[in-house]
Request: fold
Amino acid sequence: MIVILDSGVLHTLVSTSKVKEVTDCQDWFYYLLSRSARVVTSSLCNYEVKRELIRRKKVKEINNLNQLKALIDLIPVDDPTLELAAELWAFARNKGIPTADDISLDADVIICAQYQLLAEEYPGRYVVIATTNVKHLSRFTEAKEWQDIEF
Reply:
């Protein structure tokens, strides 16, 4: 199993809050690792989370995010990813199902492209995006709320 963390889930994982959702998400993450699931995230998601943590001066969470990179791989946003993302973006708009405003960078289609390329690279392996935004991502991927992903 390969689990791709989106920005919302990544942000929850690095939180220092002790609310049940955060601790449940952290327990879920370590359970996946203990079962030898490969957990990854997009370098774009890392950027989205880090910029907000920096803006809000959340030093402990920034340290948590940096430490998390020792446990998960960052998928780069490279030329093949952007080529496929451009195709997905145009397809979605031509079908009348855009995932963001026309002037937006549309991180969702970039993450969808990374998912598709990862799924092609590992045929036969279950690949899923752990997200808080199933609606947009599920148009092009297997996407589930993190709580619904079991190993």
Q: What stands out?
A: The longest strand covers residues 38-42. The chain has one domain: 2-148.
